[in-house]
Amino acid sequence: MSYKIELHCHTSPVSGCSNMKGQDLVRYYAQAGYSAVHITDHFTPWFFAEQDFTDYLYGYHAAKKAGEKLGVKVYLGAELRYESNPNDYLLFGVTEDFLKGAKELLKSTYPEIFAYCRQNGVLIYQAHPFRDGMLETPPEMLDGIEGYNMHPHHRSRNEKAIAYAEKHGLNYLSGSDAHSKEMVGRGGIISDTLPEDSKGLRDLILSGKYELYHEGEVVE
Ligand SMILES: [Zn+2]
Ligand SMILES: [Zn+2]
Q1: Containing domain of residue 154, as a range?
Q2: What spacing in Å lies between the alpha carbon of 128 and ligand 2's midpoint?
Q3: I want to staple 148 with a disulfide (CB 3.0 to 4.6 A). Which of 56, 66, 127, 214 is the partner?
Q4: 11 C-alpha to ligand 1 centroid (Å)
């Protein structure tokens, strides 16, 4: 038995750029043959300037509830951007308490955010590091990068990202970065085991026992 797991997707209205409610997203992923989804809504200082922490979890909870009915595991994740930098970072292995603490660091610096992830056993991967406008993160302050970002409407330059990861000995992953039904199911990983929760997903990534999944046309 093998399981397909999405690592990067967005729910509406938590991610203002997504048009899929959590429950719809899970339904589309079930139809696409996925066993699990890692919800990575945009976690930014601009979100929290207007909304509360509980609002951030709305899409995750809606997805989780739908997932229980449809037999799809739903993991809590985040795509973090802090105030003084344009980059996006995917976090693996988060809990609600971890995110509450991370929210207080969004006006600080990258080394502080990285240290907080390390202290809490959370993996930090730079998302689409060669998309326009992204800046380099010191490789020693990353667990890896998103080598395959399958978003069809951005130049993510995946080949460049993968070459960079190989050069610096960084692990790399694959994600759809789905914001709409049409963008569902283009990326992720395939594994013989199905993690129970976010920590289990982190452990699976650390184990390296998975294949990368990426399908469909990519803008380079
Ligand atoms: Zn977005
Ligand atoms: Zn994203």
Answers
A1: 3-214
A2: 9
A3: 214
A4: 9
